[in-house]
Amino acid sequence: MDNLGIVFLSELVGTALLVLLGCGVVANVALTKNKGFGGGFLMVTIGWGLAVFAGVIVAYNSGAHLNPAVTLGLVASDASEFGSGVPVNVASVAAYIAAQILGAILGATFVWLAYKQHFDQEPDPASKLGVFATGPAIRSYGWNLVTEIIGTFVLVFVVIAFGAGRQGENGGLAALGALPVALLVIVIGTSLGGPTGYAINPARDLGPRIAHFLLPIKGKSSSDWAYSWVPVVGPVIGGLLAGWSSAFLLPILA
Q1: What is the pLDDT of residue 162?
Q2: CATH superfamily of 3-253
Q3: Which residue ranges traverse the bilayer (predicted)?
Q4: Residue 54 burial class via C-beta count within 10 angstroms: exposed 0-12, middle 13-18, buried 19 and up
């Protein structure tokens, strides 16, 4: 298998594990028949942070982007190659993003399999969708977009900053380190996650939303495609802004 193939597989497996554990904690909290039902937003936030920890550990071969916003942010920062040693070009960017979205669909499918009986007995269609996809506390597309941009900017800017401080290791979340990036995701969730559920990752929301649409989930309702563009466009903008900003801000701050 060539280097790009290894990167694709690494990103796919890492993102699948990330979504399996992340959406899994949401299922545990949101579906009424579970032992973790009612565990609250803090439990979800900690679970997502540790899910990122696991995904980063597994996807070390690719630099563990696990997120199109991270990939595009690194492109915008004028990186010449990713942490995997793969040069930055159209083919490598497409491979990263395709693997991330496919991995997210796969991880969400495993969540459905793990909680199949609970999905069948859950009376609320909104709770079922909430396992897979984010949704706003107050629906206001413009302000929801702003929240996602800010949260993703923080994620990507800190990742690039930490990598730049480690002799240019700017290849992805792995440059930050599994535990620090887990803590970063937790603090973003606890500080900025309330308005939208903090997707901060287009693949994390789009992949599971596609899975929700395709899977034969008993009693499901709409996949809320009207909102689906927000957790894709917002993180993309936030990641690009972080990448562009890092090119001139980080040398000054250093």
Answers
A1: 83
A2: Glycerol uptake facilitator protein. (1.20.1080.10)
A3: 6-29, 41-60, 93-115, 145-165, 171-194, 226-253
A4: middle
Strand ranges for the chain from DSSP E: none
pTM for the model: 0.94
Query: What DSSP designation does 87 have?
Result: B
Q: What is the pLDDT of residues 75-126, one digit of tens each?
A: 999 877 886 678 899 999 999 999 999 999 999 999 999 999 999 999 999 9
Whether residue 168 is predicted with pLDDT greater than 70 in this model: the reply is: no
Alpha-carbon gap, residue 14 to 169, rounded angstroms = 19
Q: Letter for the amino acid at 73? A: G
Instruction: Give the Cα separation of 75 and 67 in Å (integer).
Output: 13
C-alpha–C-alpha distance, residues 192 and 144, integer Å: 11
Answer whether 182's CB lies under 8 Å from 49's CB. Answer: yes
Given a contact cutoff of 8 angstroms between Cβ atoms, the answer to whether 7 and 92 are in contact is yes
Counting other chains too, the contacts that 243-246 makes at CB distance below 8 Å and 24 or more residues apart are 243/72, 243/73, 243/74, 243/75, 243/76, 243/77, 243/78, 243/156, 243/160, 244/76, 244/77, 245/153, 245/157, 246/73, 246/77, 246/157, 246/160, 246/161, 246/164
